[in-house]
Amino acid sequence: MTLERYAELVDDYEAFVEACERPLPLTARVNRVKSSFDEVRESLEGVGFGVERLDWYDDGFRLDVPEDDENGEEAKIGNTLAHYLGWIHVQEEVSMLPPVVLETGASEDGEDTDDRLVLDVCAAPGSKTTQIAQYAACVLANDDNIGRISALRNNTDRLGLTNVAVTSHDGRRLPGFDALGIDAAVVDVPCTSEATVRKNPEYRDGVSQNQRESLVPVQKGILSRTLDVVRDGGRVVYSTCTFAPEENEAVVDHVLRKGKASVLNFDVGLESSPGVTEWQDDEYVSEVEKTRRFYPHQNDTGGFYVALLEA
Ligand SMILES: C[S@@+](CC[C@H](N)C(=O)[O-])C[C@H]1O[C@@H](n2cnc3c(N)ncnc32)[C@H](O)[C@@H]1O
Predict the structure, then answer these.
(1) Annotated active-site residue in 20, 122, 191, 241
(2) Per-residue model confidence as pLDDT tens digits over 57-104
(3) Do 74 and 114 share a structural domain?
(4) Which range marks the domain in which residue 102 is found?
(5) Which DSSP category does 24 fall into?
(6) Are residues 190 and 226 in the same domain?
(7) Does residue 20 carry a catalytic annotation?
(8) Among 282, 294, 164, 289, CA closest to 242
(9) pLDDT tens sequence across 178-198
């Protein structure tokens, strides 16, 4: 099954395919705990990198990599002083969306985001945890894969963060979390990852239906349990890097039908398409239209799906 399965969903299928075949621009984000955009730009431009700030998110920037570094070797962002010192974190542009969407929702309500305890249920290797930690009082970073937790810890250490607590539970269970008074959560679930096709060209051939069918109950279980442990009225961002409605709108539809959440609108200043309400033989509740699909051709990024929910 190829990406052609999504032809009927995409507004401009030709532009979509063309974008999926182009390499992905390299992007990173400033770690404001240790540095600033101006300091990072000076450091990276000093060793030959081009730095262009994202117009929708002040901390994010695109990088133009020089052919060689100052020693005549292949230039790599991971070898720069800015990276070593924890001034930056290399992160896909669309992967920066969930923490930004969480902020958008909260600030519209006039909530003091600096006081919040935020749960990141599927946190490793910590791109979103380390981003959220800049705006929250404390991040509870959970991941059921103990092997990936070391990468999460390495990132929080390199970035100098002291407000991240780490746990390793299955996100469908989260024992004892109900009592913690969690204010908000990010649910960046394991998914088939087809929308990372620009970074992983093997996804041009699509993924197996078996693989998808085994992930969907896990995605539903994790989102459902997270909505139970977040306080009433708290914001929850659900996200994936797949185009598949089964892993996106159908999962949101599942928790809406159980009365666990409502869907909120958001706009971060990037082009996107509304969530779909019909797919194959299934129909979803109309509220899922407020969720957003980010296709590669719309903003020259990877693909992504984001839903902003209120518990
Ligand atoms: C898309 S990745 C998360 C990426 C991460 N949010 C980031 O920004 O760096 C999904 C993560 O879910 C974790 N995971 C898979 N099944 C899980 C479960 N049942 N409970 C909690 N985490 C799970 C995987 O180990 C993986 O690290």
Answers:
(1) 241
(2) 999 999 999 987 777 788 999 999 999 999 999 999 999 999 999 998
(3) no
(4) 3-22+94-310
(5) P
(6) yes
(7) no
(8) 294
(9) 999 999 999 999 999 999 999
